[in-house]
């Protein structure tokens, strides 16, 4: 008799306390609504105030999870050691030049948090500006948000979150003495932007519902209560951010949702000046500014340019009537971001899922591109901190090629390799194969799938597979180098990324056709990717473990309902599975902002029906489900802990099989999970152990199987 994968232990029982809600004449009953803490705002700032009944339930879930995963402890330790062994523990970034100095970050051996340092511009002794490990001492959770030096290079703004709820605090450090000023600015979005005189900074403050809607100016040496309100956004559906120009001439106030934007500017040398509107918001029109000396270059979809174009306008007259086209839209090739330098305009674009960097001489109009020849790869444009330069920086990697960092001379077109990611335990790219497949979707679209596997892995359908997906907000998951997944590939797994609709992998239309009333394309694309991997003999359905987080967790819940037979296991991290209830609740942090992405079920019966048709929690039913692992953080403001808690309870109540549903809650973290780099590796090792357990691959490696 085959030994069961998990011990037959009773799962925690979740009491029912039905709550009914009627919208558009439709009444829904939620048996597990009581798991939502009424004082959730307070819990985000102080987890100790959580209702004892809810805490007891979550702790029971953790105990059940631990009991079912106890036999993987040795495997988890092995995986952790492997993944840690691939990290250069004392790794350091290549410093970027800015004025008389070059700034960078590093880790110390054994350290969990980054450190920030600087050197003289052309090299020399490092000066440590901020030690994250030192700041994290004594805290159960700590995450550095940013560290930004002032224009005069004398001060540093740095931000941190010590609860996991993303209510960041800001401090100001004197770089010469390394002492922090008494200034403490709380409840921020995580960063600040200096004024030109280095006397103060701008920051956005989040309200009790965690929405960044107010911009303040803080003068160094004063109390936060004295900070001047610079600008306020009254529409809860629009969030506010602040940035600075490369020449330190302007402060950019960026307001927007998922499809509309509006920018305001302030001269950086006149921080108390009234903000100036660039172009009034127009539903569906996005734009983003980059300073180019006496002009702004504007990346925008104005005029129906779905894949975006670049326009310019005089700095002294930035209003929309003065915009002129500089780089026209090329349908099917989406422009992702742009930057301007004294002599060059640069942008990153993507065509058929592959990125390239394009450089245009601002005087002659001559263009050339930086691209690579691999089937699937990742390219990042880091640019430069300086405006008057011919040198920009970019990064490159593929699923088999460790990350490389280059300086690129835009004038001579010479590349200088600055750094190649080190893998201390060793890595031979020739041991692995990367491919790019095209999976046919039900409507005939071809869904790109990037895959990695060990060269000794048999491609006869017997290999297990971890299939990752996201598919929302236009976010593209790059086919980049990931040392962690090598632990799966070395054990015979095919590691796959499905570039499904809802991202911008194949242009803006790819995103549009995976949102709102077309959202189900995201789910059917992912199922199609699984089916294609099986059809091409890379794996079999009972060997596929699906994985996704946040909106990708919604994907996991949806495909579990729609095609449970297609997967042998599912890992749902911070899963957005109660989408209907959340998008109906206007008090939750992100809800009004989310309506352009998902639809507004509060006002629209059609949107209500669409979301209700695929909402994972609403559509759990009496059928067999594969083993499921749900993971969340108690203080997560993005996807609240009660979404997966309710989902797990309903799954257990309705499903018809004996496969377990495991629920793991980090009681000291939020959306991003554990904060330290090694703590995060422990979480990944745990997830991989689950995937290995449900596929029965806890020991053998690909090379061992080939020899056998």
UniProtKB/TrEMBL annotation:
Keyword ATP-binding: no
GO biological process terms on file: proteolysis
Record-level Gene Ontology MF annotations: serine-type endopeptidase activity
Keyword Protease: yes
PROSITE patterns: PRO_ENDOPEP_SER
Keyword annotations of the record: Hydrolase, Protease, Serine protease
Domain (Peptidase S9 prolyl oligopeptidase catalytic): residue spans on this chain: 480-697
Stretches assigned to the Peptidase S9A N-terminal domain: 13-420
Region of interest: Disordered: 1-23
Protein family according to the UniProt entry: Belongs to the peptidase S9A family.
Protein name per the record: Oligopeptidase B
Organism of derivation: Phyllobacterium leguminum
